[in-house]
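Our preliminary data section would be incomplete without showing what the modeling component actually yields. Below, a chain of 404 amino acids is followed by its predicted structure, encoded as tokens that our downstream tools consume directly.
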Amino acid sequence: MSSRSLFAPLLLPLFLAACVSTGPKSSDPVSVAGCPACTCPACPGAEPVKPAEKPLQAAVWADLPAWEEDDPVPVFEAFLASCATLEKRPLWKSTCAAARQVEGRDPVVLRTWFEARFRPWAMTNPDGSREGLITGYYEPVLKGSRKKKAPYVTPVFGPPEDMIVVELADLYPELKHLRLRGRLEGRKLVPYLSRADWAQEESKRSQEALLWVDDAIDYFFMQIQGSGQIAFDDGSRVRLNYADQNGHPYRSIGKWLVDQGELKIEQASMAGIKAWAKANPRRLQEMLNANPSLVFFRELPAEGSGPQGALGVPLTPARSIAIDPRHLTLGAPVFLATTYPNDSRPLRRLMLAQDTGGAIRGVVRADFYWGSGAEAGAQAGKMRQQGRLWQLLPRDYQPESAPK
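Predicted structure:
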């Protein structure tokens, strides 16, 4: 149960009492005890609060633009891989079993299979609108070393041993997507170190570093992406994947630069931020500290098509998206209708919700995974489009229950 749920029954009588006028009766709306006219339940003529729209609204296949034109084969393959996790949930067991029986990879056959096994649901914001923000992310490739030596002087860390993670779902199942991170001061659990605090202690923790990279700002952007590859001088590579974070909220350094008057809003792209950092090396840490969130990594082999997403399977370039698991089902197929970055060309295709992200919040909200390397980074860095989403759920899904 959330704190809001706990205290709402206690606050409601006080709120109602505060809105009751003790003065002369009048047919006109009045403001009492700090309540604006016509906004309190006791005010005459008060407009009832409109309930939030349900996030899932029934749709039909014809609603999905260019559904007949998209090739579903890449997503079907990714869905099969995801079934290792999905089939553990009752809703998905029979669908995954049926997917394993499909022979061949003909696009028309697979499209018909999706239509037979799933129903589309239009993702809808609480205010009833159906458009939302679609951004992009990618897997950067950084140069690195196992030992600290010039130019490899920026350390990469795994989750620190002194960070305590509290799973709130252990006490409150409805908070399954929330957890607390902190550290002990005596017998008291306090918030864990912010990025600025960590920077002060970093030199004392150098022995704990997984490896070292050559560019602090590139490493910062790798933390935002949640994964990356490290290329060593001998030609070998490893993959770094998100392991945990310090529990502090994400703050945009681009917005900080705009607020400081250092960049105009149209300049606050990844390229613009990197250019500012190069021109202002003495203020680099100040800029980075504007985002108190700090990500910790784990090391994985570099083999495979992509980094592991939150579902635990490799992401598929240009077919995987990160979503808010409070509203969309992790692992579900999702049809996306948007446009290419800084372009009016339609980008409409079947995707798979295989990842999550700290900045991905809302019903109609997604982060498009472009792949690895500089070209993917260029696309991801300029993607900030409006788009629509349709979640595909098995036909035996009952709208009364939340999708699992």
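Residues 139-301 form a domain with the Ribosomal Protein L25; Chain P fold (CATH 2.40.240.50). The CA atoms of residues 137 and 342 lie 15 Å apart. Preliminary results of this kind motivate Aim 1 of the renewal.
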